[in-house]
Task: structure prediction
Amino acid sequence: MVCMSVEHTPVLLNEALELLDVRPGGLYVDCTVGLGGHAEAILERLGGQGQFLGIDRDQAALDRARERLNRFRNLELYHSNFKNLPLIMSRLSRETIDGCLIDLGVSSMQLTSADRGFSLRETGPLDMRMDLDQKITASQLLHQLNEDQLTDLFRRYGEEPSARKIAAAIVVERRVRRLQTTRDLAELVERVKGRRPGSRIHPATQVFQALRIEVNQELSGLEEFLEAVIQRLSPGGRLVVVSFHSLEDRVVKQLFQKQAGRCICFRPGDACICPRQERVRILTKKPVVPSAQEIGANPRSRSAKLRAVEKIGV
Ligand SMILES: C[S@@+](CC[C@H](N)C(=O)[O-])C[C@H]1O[C@@H](n2cnc3c(N)ncnc32)[C@H](O)[C@@H]1O
Result:
């Protein structure tokens, strides 16, 4: 039986498992093990055979996962950025992966722990580092970037229409005091943008998203990493990715199309510069999204999109 964590409900669990098609004896990697919800279900399907690698850059999450998964013997957990997977793999006797899950974003535990500084609703230090060994916090970023850089950040990673106004207000505010807490920033953005009557979404949501992406360099190297995973998949091996915002989903979608040999440059005929090499088969023509029932039970799942591919070859 799959035990649901009280602090993070795995999103699209059944859909992810079905697409991962776990086969006993294989090597499966969960690149974002979090509190181990998906991992536990994968390990149960592995049935004590094969091998499981779990990675997370958040030591606190990994400690919880270790506790939850301690009844399984065929697993190794690594505190690392998943971009180090090729390095981790180089220490193993196996060269190929039979299935890989990447459940991007933050866990509910990270979101609701005030001291981690991810949440708009909890007052805490404006931190947002997934890995506490990282050097730069969100507060430091707000004080280091100039107005143009802040504007660009809020536009690029938050798609925030009031980016310029918010950046200007931050620059004025930081002359008189440090923006140190989540509340300092949330209130400043609310003052600049106001609140839409009746809206349950906080006006600072996009600014928080942009800062989190930048602090954790969430998009940098994602495409290259997905490519590296596909390279290491065994024939018939599967990669399943769950993303939570359109910027991530766009990277995943385009990379999958490129790896499936499709054109993503949209230049006509001979002018096309895409490699057109078919390395994978796309298993999800449209992204899989949570049912109304799942969203009702776990509102944080509402923006999830799942895409999956299978490696071609014999
Ligand atoms: C949505 S949660 C995963 C939840 C997990 N599937 C479960 O069922 O409990 C995302 C996790 O990915 C981790 N994470 C995000 N980016 C990462 C990266 N580049 N390398 C390693 N871990 C990362 C976060 O620290 C977080 O714990």
Notes: The radius of gyration is 20 Å. The chain has 13 helices and seven strands. The pocket of S-adenosylmethionine is lined by residues 8, 10, 32, 34-38, 55-58, 61, 81-82, 103, 105-107, 130 (CB under 6 Å).
